[in-house]
Amino acid sequence: MTTDLILLAETIHTLDGGPAPIQAVAVRDGLVAAVGSRADAAGWRGPATQVLDLGAATLTPGLVDCHIHPVFGLELTAGCDLSGAGSLAEVRALLRAQASGADGWLRAWGLDPNVFGTAAVHRNAIDDAVGGRPALVRLFDGHCALASAKALELAGITGPRAFDQTAEVVCDDGGVPTGLLLEAAAIELVQRVMPKEPLADRKGRLAALLARFAAAGLTGGHVMDLSDGSLELYQALEDDGALPLRLRCAPWCMPGSGEAEWERLAQQTRLAGRRWSVDAIKLFVDGTIDNGTAWLHRPDAYGASTSAFWPRPAEYTAAVHYFAARGIPTATHAIGDAGVAHVLDALESLPAGSGTAVHRIEHIETVPDALVERFKRLGVAASMQPTHCTHYSRADHSDNWSTRLGTERANRAWRGRDLRDAGVVLGLGSDWPIAPFEPLPILADAQLRRRSGHPDQAPIAPGQALTALQGYTSHAARAAGQWDVSGSITVGMRADFTVFELDPLTAAPDELAASAVLGTFVDGKIQSMLDRVG
């Protein structure tokens, strides 16, 4: 057997359930051609075979982030980064510094609502800091934004608006907008009047972002949107040889759409390049707990989070039926218990013969025992983000998310371990830019149930701790319906690999989070590699 590439490593986790230990992998034509011992590898070598000895490193199937927003994230992360600001004073100082640097629109992102304490989120907190400029500040959850007085004026927002989806221009008792905009339709009112970034600039920023994804260990991502210009950007990067990971996209199906729009979306699922494809449809059944737009069986502490994102939930169910009947996978954003229950109801109501497409639910932040069991019974995949828990909630329930839910529901936080133990397919990811994309700290946080590198923090629902490598590999493949081509190091599978400095299955989580990714391979080709390897 002649091969293109042989990789040797002290530890290789194939994640295919086969015998161990394996210390050699051969690649031919972008696929795994053989696995075995170092002695076996001697028989795989031909005159043109490249041999790369990774020494004491650990090789695994390539890491896949099950929930990212690369192009949409370019918009969300434009301007001043507020994600590290722990107080309103820090937020205002950062905005003031940004406002002093240039004229025109001010953008900021990553604002944590916890900085407002028990006070309502209001533009009065930022208007003087931005110096009267038009400003749009994205809150960390990506589902709401705070607009300055000047931004509201330029957008012509003077009072409440009606939308097809459950969105809101929040107003005070006198009907005057507070600046808080809930959900996409409300935010778009301001976005329409903001200047657009030139395509060449977006392409450059996207190329740099995806290179950082690869350097962090990612070989693929499930892109939960298809923002304007996405396909053109992905194809342009691929044409330039600058697409270092596989991207599986899912365009949004929104309330107010009907069968004509659904057919257009269905047609998009036939589009693909070499490393990008449109394979699924993304839907939303609720918003977020932090801004009061989740769908809960009981209201939150402020009387909010009582409604579906689709004002007529039966239309959501009809959309799911439409795509399922055509064999198209769906992924639905559902955070609250009522939202998750409705998605499960919709999937359970699919008629026999609806196909074998994998349907999944994204986020699943608080659910009771009965819903955990239904995932397994219905064969529905789960997709969760460990750092949503560890970055934005606290063990003592003093954070905004927990305060809104109350103790009982906050104790049901991000039940990844229970879902995994129930035999549910559980893909994991970051939801970048809502949380950082680097996978090693996410793997660590899933085990620790606190932020890695912060041993002083108490774990949040520690009984939900789990080893997370499968969520980025074998379960990521299952959640995408791609177990037959990826997710393990098995003969015939794609030769996508991640190389770790430390073994992700045995290293102490805090040490793993601080360690290095040594390289990534896609189709057996190096996409990123530290100089000290080989």
What is shown here, in short?
With 534 residues, this protein is α/β, with parallel strands linked by helices.
Describe this structure in words.
The strands form 4 sheets. Strands 1, 2, 3, 4, 5, 22, 23 and 24 form an 8-stranded mixed beta sheet that branches. With 534 residues, the chain is an alpha/beta fold. The longest helix is centred in the middle third of the chain and has 17 residues, at 199-215. 30% of the residues lie in helices and 21% in strands. Strand 23 (517-522) and strand 24 (525-529) form a beta hairpin. The protein contains 19 helices and 24 strands. The mean pLDDT is 96.
Task: Report the sheet with the most strands, covering strand number, pairing sense and barrel closure.
Answer: 8 strands, mixed
Beta percentage is 15-25%
Give the rounded overall mean pLDDT: 96
Quaternary structure state of the chains depicted: single chain
Helicity range: 25-40%
Tertiary shape: globular
Beginning-to-end CA distance, first to last residue: 23 Å
Low-confidence stretches: none
Helix/sheet category: alpha/beta
β-strand number: 24
Spatial extent as radius of gyration = 23 Å
